[in-house]
User: Fold these one by one.
Assistant:
Number 1:
Amino acid sequence: MAKKEIKTENKDSLMENIISLCKRRGFIFQGSEIYGGLAGTWDWGHFGLALKNNIKQSWWKKFVDSRRDMYGIDAAILMRQEVWVATGHVENFADPFNGKKFNTMLKTQVGAGEEATTSYLRPETAQGIFVNFKNTVDAFHPKLPFGIAQIGKAFRNEIAPRDFIFRQREFEQMEIEYFVRPEDWEKYFEYFKDEMLEWMVEVGIDMAKVHDIEVPDADRAHYSSRTVDFEFEYPFGQKELFGLAYRSDFDLKTHKLDYIDEAPTPGGAGVPTESVGKKIIPHVIEPSFGVDRAVLAVLLSAYAEDLPAQAGEIEGEKRIYLKLKPNIAPVICAVSPLLKNKPDLVKKAEEIFGVLKAEFGHVIWDDNGNIGKRYRRQDEIGTPFCITIDFDTLEDGTVTVRDRDTAKQERIKTSDLITFIKSKIS
Ligand code: GAP
């Protein structure tokens, strides 16, 4: 179809457009907004939350549920001060501020009066994994190599939070600590580099804007012996998206933890015989993902503007749409009666809506405004399909399915709708 791309005027306006769309369409709001906002905090509205949940679910499915060597954990956000003293975070997790070092861990008090102790909100989910290493080994008896995965909040008292959800004080991470025999670390480092790239493709991040950068010795976190950062070309510059670190035996040694190497699982990787039954300290490969940066990169990759010239569209008027992959879009389809004052159409539409809602969950009812306005609204939410029930539906059982990206409409039999949508999200 005739489609004219519109170039976004400048880089600042792209961020402004995305921030404004996120507010307008109920994705993301400034934290504490009605009291003037709290810098570095953002609240997630219905559609933003659905998008974020889909991204987290896709991660969990790939890195945990589809594997045999991964164990999940959901550890407490509050952790004892000793954890962070042992790992060097109390000493080293700091940014320069007016010539001094400013520790960016968020400190709090736990308990009352003399019982009160200093505690920290975790600045990385990783330590919740390490402190549960022994529990996981004792409970599940995993054989090397194996990993522990966690999705959860992390907090950093960033000196200058900025760039929307890029640098926040409260954010979310998806992390894996993957335990390997020391001699195998390079192999698994390369392996997870590929896995990370594969997942970025799965959620629709524009790979032409992703660059992997070897982090020089001087710039690495104190616990890392090698780090590769995946950087993304944001409108405000090429900056970190995700990281992959080789943490060696730094954390397990720090927490005085070890592992007794075991005989291999039948069919699994071989164990060097001299290692069986011996205490070793596994080394760690850490793929680390920021959930919020994933959402931002997905939004930036999906944001598009054009001038569709298609029947049922508002001719000649610029439209904004999010070409999100159907597997992560907050809404898979919207269902509308062509006219909301025709009881026969509304009844049929309600029936189809009920069936699709029960099947897919992420389905919405939209009868607000004329059909052109509904398309514009659903385009901005990133809804891949708009289903309209019209007078022909009552005659021949077909509905109009309008495709978000091409703005093309086709008639599909009501009985084929579920199969049609399933084929798009698999
Ligand atoms: N456990 C390793 C670790 O925490 P990191 O590079 O400091 O490493 C991992 O953080 C990821 O967390 C980053 O790649 C980024 O995606 C996300 N992240 C870090 N600081 C953030 C912040 N202030 N706001 C949003 N996301 C952040």
Number 2:
Amino acid sequence: MKILISNDDGYQAKGLVALYEAIRALPGVEVEVVAPEHNNSAKSNALTLHSPLYVHTAHNGFRYVNGTPADCVHIALTGLLGYRPDLVVSGINNGANMGDDTIYSGTVGAAMEGYLFGVPAIAFSQTEKGWAHLDAAAQKAAQLVAQLLPSLPSPVEAALPWLLNVNIPNLPADQIKGFKVARLGRRHAAEKVISQTNPRGDTMYWIGSAGAAKDGDEGTDFHAAAQGYATITPLQIDLTDHQRLPYWVPTAVQMSAPVPGGSA
Ligand code: MN
């Protein structure tokens, strides 16, 4: 089994190293890392289209790219690796990617890029920043990968890949209750933008922190993680508001009607 690992915190991030060490210790697994050179958190699925990408190899064998998480997985799958991995794994992120975070997350973006190319993928995050109990999180991640490896889609079945978003509480291994499948919750809108004055007198702005949980009810990732579970959320990409499709039909029909006296 060949596994591609990436992340969004950068190739030197502790979470990436811990995930790599835990996964490559699994039997029958070959692992390669292609990760961003710098922190690319909140870059979502962004691709770099207007400047060239360069790949370098670090002393530990990790390859790093002057681009986004999605760039890394994209170029890995479209030429750099020279083979198709059986699984793409991203993380372990420095902080939660729950609820709306998944829209912004570069950790999820890297995994989603694999998914878009038909490769099953998992995004791993720790729920708190700071890497506390990172070894426990890496062991949980490796446990899930080991569980899924035997059932990975063959290349023939790869038209139906899956994408998992996993959040692991920063707890010692014996205090993580286990895995729980959860839907995404919702966050409140982000905190206010922070404005400061730079040394030259210009006003500069910093994006505020993510909001607290707004929908953290039972069944959500927020709830399960707060209870001490590692959460598993299967994700899909279709953003269509299927419920409201019929609501918009009359508007489109109305606007498509011939305008009286108007030219076609
Ligand atoms: Mn990050």
